[in-house]
Amino acid sequence: MKRTPRGTPVGVDDPLDVVDRCDWVTQDGRCRLALERPDVNHRFVTERRLDEYRCPFIEDERTWTDCEEFTSRDHGRRCARCGLEERLIAHDDSARALLERHHLSYAEADGTEITVVLCRWCHAKVHAGTARVDDPAEPDRAALAEVERRARLERAESFTTAADRRDED
Questions:
Q1: Per residue in 101-110, pLDDT tens?
Q2: Among 50, 85, 114, 120, which is disulfide-ready with 15 (CB 3.0 to 4.6 Å)?
């Protein structure tokens, strides 16, 4: 199993197995990085511009990691392993998020960055080496208890819409 620079397991054998596409690829197959940030890598941007900003890694037989600007960061709101959904507590900046980014590959180590979203319970299990990202899993009991606690807090909040407050005047 692949390991972090510190030696802890990342939970997959090959981080590319979890990649659907590069974050910079648009729906029409162009490189958004070259389009929006021409100052990033002059040679790279020039090559993309000459090819009408087309991403060559979609149609060619090359892999994503052949691209020097490749990155894939999951922006999901659900754990990639157990499916637990994020539930934030409004107006409480000290409340720890249920979901965390989990690095499968580090830009400083090999030039690419690949992350997935894991709940903090799955994240701990993966780094402890007792679980893999692609394991079929159910949410941890402690995770479900925290989700329920947050749901109770939401239900206990009193909320009045502006329209309701105006009707009371």
A1: 998 887 776 6
A2: 114
Separation of alpha carbons 95 and 150, rounded Å: 10
Query: What are the structural domain ranges in the chain?
Result: 22-69, 76-169
Biggest alpha carbon–alpha carbon distance for the chain: 67
pLDDT at 28: 92
What pLDDT, on the 0 to 100 scale, is given for residue 143? 95
Taking the mean position of all CA atoms in its chain, how far away is CA 67?
A: 20
Computed over every residue of the chain, the mean pLDDT equals: 86
Residues forming a β-bridge with 3: 9
What CA–CA distance (Å, rounded) separates 44 from 46?
5
Q: Cα(15)–Cα(19) distance, rounded to whole angstroms?
A: 7
Q: How many residues does the chain have?
A: 169
Phi-psi region of 7 (alpha: psi -120 to 50; beta: other; left: phi over 0): left
List, in sequence order, every residue forming a beta bridge with 9; answer none if it has no partner.
Answer: 3
What is the residue-wise DSSP string for 75-97? Answer: --SB-TTT-PBP---TT-TTSPP
